[in-house]
Amino acid sequence: MHPDFQQLMSQATRLTRSGNLAAAAAAIQAALMGASPTAASAAPRYDEADVIDVEAREVPASTVSAAASSDSGSHSTPAPSQARDDDVGQNPHTPATPRAPGESSATPGDYFTAGSFRNSAGQRAYKLYVPPGANGQARPLVVMLHGCTQDADDFAAGTAMNEAARKQGFYVLYPVQPRETNPQKCWNWFKHNHQQAGKGEPSILADMTRHVIAEYGIDPRRVYVAGLSAGGAMAAILANTYPQLYAAAGVHSGLAAGAATDLPSALSAMKGIGVRPGAASGTPVPTIVFHGDRDATVHPSNGDAVVAASAGANAQVQSQRVAGANRGRDSTKRVYMDASGKVVAEYWVVHGAGHAWAGGSPKGSYTDASGPDATQEMLRFFFEHPLATKQ
Question: 325: which DSSP letter?
Fold first, then answer.
């Protein structure tokens, strides 16, 4: 973390208390992009509706200006096709791109295609990985929500989720947050109007998921959602608001549903101040959490809050140390069970790790290759938790 991070965050706190929310947002942006305190005054000034939330890695101060006017200044991968008004619910069977940049060579029959979806709450582009040999078979679906400054191609490459899907035979949906709806392409987890079923981004993402389920004959009992950072926070919101749609959730370096509703509470949650368990739905969704204990962007206490919302206060907990492979990072794995002994949550505390996808590929951004394989562990957890059959 940049040495001036704490100074900038303190500056943002003072500005928030004084009511200067635009300047506070600029200070937060500068802190998360690795800028110096003097750069805060030059940073783009967004109002509270456009506050920058969680960015997943530091950007050198020399790239701050470029990052404010371009996608991120650090990605070599092209962004997904932008959505158009006439793209609503388009049939994405024709592949636009065979795979994410950086992936291994083609497997006959699989493809990575672009599409767009709109409902009454708004429109978002997406990319969809279709596994080989999926014709007419009810396969699982994993919805992947990228972090700030990322896009679908980058997230697919960094998590290697498409390669896992190719081997195990499931679909992967990557909704895309455009800069027009958040300056750093963060999902708007911290806004009260994006935290409820039937409203805002949760509505768009849930209906997009339903659209893909219907279009491709997905197994409705095996639909899962996962995300990193701001994407992890939105994954927690989707699990909370749509427990009959998503059978399980994966939250990596994210925050619990309801952790914030405005700029001051977002700032506090990120710093670990006043963090409380998220608001669980009437039907808590099984959740697996990964969080680095050295995360200086989203305080690790947020991982505890995510788990508590899923597991509840009376869960039995078993803890074990997991040694890192090939001299990688060790982890503490906590397994939460209900009174019947059923696993309802897992929490992987990755020792010495910061704000990055554990075990990810260097082909994508915001990854830590020395960590445990979060992608494979999430998939294991997901496929152990199909949606319960309705009585």
Answer: G
